[in-house]
């Protein structure tokens, strides 16, 4: 489980170090940095798949994503050290940090691609020299082998490749491989489509689907998989809690699955094409949260979108219940959803970590109620 998330110089997040628990809810007014925190987590996940540099380039490169303020805004000073965007996390078992910087000027059209200057993994919650498991500086990588010795590369790592994707070898870097697979298990759901042409509204070829796809196209197959191999009772309870007296069935014709919602008083079931945006979105969240294959981390961005207020409590119950099996981060604008999550966590005797983001007078994002450095988790960045 992640216990600390650290971000530096990313959009409004000049320096943000926050503790995480089993269930976390991120709130705050518009423009306080909630989306930036969500994107920072996504970038960390992209690093394990070798896609962080491309993701930053799609955002306009470092020029568009770097914190635009001063290192010492109270004194009006500019930047004194190397410019870099730094992301990291730590838990009881592992920690990881990456430092992106501007590319060295060259005759290339790929000037939006930042370079990975430094990467580091370590054992335990805090980076210490004795705890380092692998380290990358420029093109050179050293990794601690299974017998405790150091393996050093010949310096062939390209500036746009992460050591997580290139050096995770079971013999030379077993800990790096475990960390990579841990990060790759993370799941993100962000504004799943429910418009008239959304993939979730049409019949699809059905196969066993323990993990709902990010576009929701395999919703009928995912719900049927829960019905057959997952927690069928919780699925039925989730549908009844949101739509009293209703039940779900999955019709199959020629191998194509189609969702059917049976409601009291209706002479026939409604298909996904006929459901309201809110009803379809709730069923999508149900499939994501009742997955028979829980991830190490599940991040939901504004799950309340399009939902009727009466659906927020059943959604909160689903989230709290899922937090028994996986770590969850919920980024939300809805104070009512946050309230339901708090009440639900109390009933389930689960600690809720509430993170309210605010802006200070210099435009930097910070956590409300934090008075100084002593209120944040211990954190050290690897040096270039």
TrEMBL record:
Keyword Secreted: no
One of the GO BP terms on file: double-strand break repair
Keywords: DNA damage, SOS response
GO terms for MF: ATP binding; ATP hydrolysis activity
Gene3D superfamilies: P-loop containing nucleotide triphosphate hydrolases (3.40.50.300)
Endonuclease GajA/Old nuclease/RecF-like AAA domain location: 1-46
All residue ranges annotated as the ATPase AAA-type core domain in the record: 167-334
InterPro entries reported in the protein's UniProt record: AAA_GajA/Old/RecF-like, ATPase_AAA_core, P-loop_NTPase, RecF-like
Keyword DNA damage in annotation: yes
Any single Pfam family the record assigns to this protein: AAA_15
Transmembrane regions listed in the UniProt entry: none
Name of the protein: AAA family ATPase
Organism: Streptomyces bathyalis
